[in-house]
Amino acid sequence: MGVFLGRALPCVALPPFKGKLLLQRIRFIGAQSVLVIVLTGAFTGMVLGFQGYYTLRKVGSEAFLGPLLALSLVLELGPVLSALMVAGRAGSAVTAEIGIMRLGEQIDALELMGLSPFRYLVVPNVVAAAISMPLLTAIFDVVGIGGGYLVGVRLLGVSPGVYLGEMESYVKMVDIMHGLYKSLSFGVIIGWVCCYKGFYARPSARGVSQATTEAVVLSSVLILVWDCFLTSVR
Question: Which of 10, 14, 161, 210 has a C-alpha 20 to 30 A away from that of 119?
Fold first, then answer.
């Protein structure tokens, strides 16, 4: 897998650039994942609002609901849950698409024509995932904070000034950027693993389905492991 990524990365800088193909991949991986990201972010924020409020109330610190919710979303839950959702929705489709091309010998046809399958199949998906993930994570964070506001302020009675003011005091730009850097690396992992599994899928219906399952599971596990490593060295 490391050799596969090493062969793909140099193709990113080789002209001519496939701008139209890249935009199509961004639309598929990013824009078409917005709905699931919004739904996941909203209900994650609401759950955090409920659980955070009842936990903080035990120690008389309901005023810190805003920072608790915002830091949880920005640093961990936003990047990780967004990546897991994209891996399940778009990553599986990418693996199946490339695996079907392997089954139909379309990848072999590209190689016979002297065209690099890495430039046409791998690089656009990896770059599109890397571009889309920080944007989707930002949407997830904003919607999640809004969901927490709805629960904490509108339902549970926390002061809106306290909710937003304490959040502004404790959440720094470095925290936001750390979460976005995480999400960018998660995008590379999703594109890399899913393209690899599809590229080397066995040329059969069962092989494609097995590669799709392995891609989602492996990318999800790697996201969690890499998140743990990034958090430990922060």
Answer: 210
